[in-house]
Amino acid sequence: MKVAVCGAGITGLAVANKLVGDGAEVVVLERAPAPREQGYMIDFFGAGFDAAEELGVLPRIRELAYRVDEASLLDEQGRRRASARYTTFARAMRDRLCGIMRPDLEQALREHLPPTVDLRFGAGVTAVEDLGDRVQVTAGDQVVEADVLVGADGIHSAVRRLVFGEDGEFLRYLGFHTAAFVFTDPEIHHAIGDRFCLTDTIGRQMGFYGLRDGRVAAFAVHRTGDPRLPGDTRAALRQEYGSLGWLVPRALRRCPPSEAVYYDQVAQIVMPSWSRGRVVLAGDACSAVSLIAGQGASLGVAGAFVLGEQLQNRSITEAFTEYERLMRPVAEEKQAVARRSARWFLPESPLQLGIRRAALRLSRLPVLDRYVAAVLAGKSTAVVTNLRRSAAEVAR
């Protein structure tokens, strides 16, 4: 089987790793000219963690992961208002949790690809034609024919737009914009240490992680009713967050040019079907759960694994159907959680700010920390392990 994968992000690289390991011929088409350096720190656990272990890439992910002692809410003067121990959650999840930068997770998956994978950067998909017995994909002046096309090109998927319809049909905006950038500042790096520091503020907040090379990763999110993205993201960040205190003004002065800043709306993708003919979508392209829900990277890796398992054992149509049957409930659960918790994700009032502080303090209690960890993991944790268990039973 020959498979074309659109997107060399986390999901696309996971799809390529799984399929080539199962004997498929894989071509990966990526619009960007080179691997992206933008992105923020993610907590990687759950079904994606299990899938990464099955793919053999987990040791490298652990090497690239960061030690985070705690998550801290800090006021305008940098004083801690509340905190939660990261190690407590890690223990509650049997140490199957790590903090890793999105570009580093991509690096681990990319390094794990064998040389037989045809990885092409600067190859954005511009046309897709399902020919019945195969699919033809055009990327600029390149034409690729394959048995299957996997659209793993994110929340603003070109494959989804070309095959299923415009973004507006499927995109559910949640009322936030988010951004991330990396900069160098020894003073900020020293102040952060091994913590994830987040401003304890209303309507907008910034967070910081210290990276191992002396750089600092910044994360930002704010409420806005306008889903449109600004033309100059650096100027927009300075305007939106310039009133915050502590280390924020200093960080904003070191914000790189717009092309080096990740900036997007916080949204979900909701679709009636994830496949059409010989084209199937994966990860954020079909089921983005949003920043609020978290686990988008984990679900992307897990979905890639599940899709590959089905393509290995079924006809194309049956594989797409079973893949969606297994993964859709998991994604929809996370999406529902995000919609319910959106009003608490970023406080709108002093009262909500106080409630968030109290919740973070309570999460430190020995019994509640395990409960919170179980809630965060959700149903998705069992998807890959159950699939493997079923396969083993069939083999017996």
Automatic annotation (TrEMBL):
<dbReference type="GO" id="GO:0004497">
    <property type="term" value="F:monooxygenase activity"/>
</dbReference>
<dbReference type="InterPro" id="IPR051704">
    <property type="entry name" value="FAD_aromatic-hydroxylase"/>
</dbReference>
<dbReference type="Pfam" id="PF01494">
    <property type="entry name" value="FAD_binding_3"/>
</dbReference>
<dbReference type="InterPro" id="IPR002938">
    <property type="entry name" value="FAD-bd"/>
</dbReference>
<protein>
    <submittedName>
        <fullName>FAD-dependent monooxygenase</fullName>
    </submittedName>
</protein>
<dbReference type="InterPro" id="IPR036188">
    <property type="entry name" value="FAD/NAD-bd_sf"/>
</dbReference>
<feature type="domain" description="FAD-binding">
    <location>
        <begin position="2"/>
        <end position="312"/>
    </location>
</feature>
<dbReference type="GO" id="GO:0071949">
    <property type="term" value="F:FAD binding"/>
</dbReference>
<keyword id="KW-0503">Monooxygenase</keyword>
<keyword id="KW-0560">Oxidoreductase</keyword>
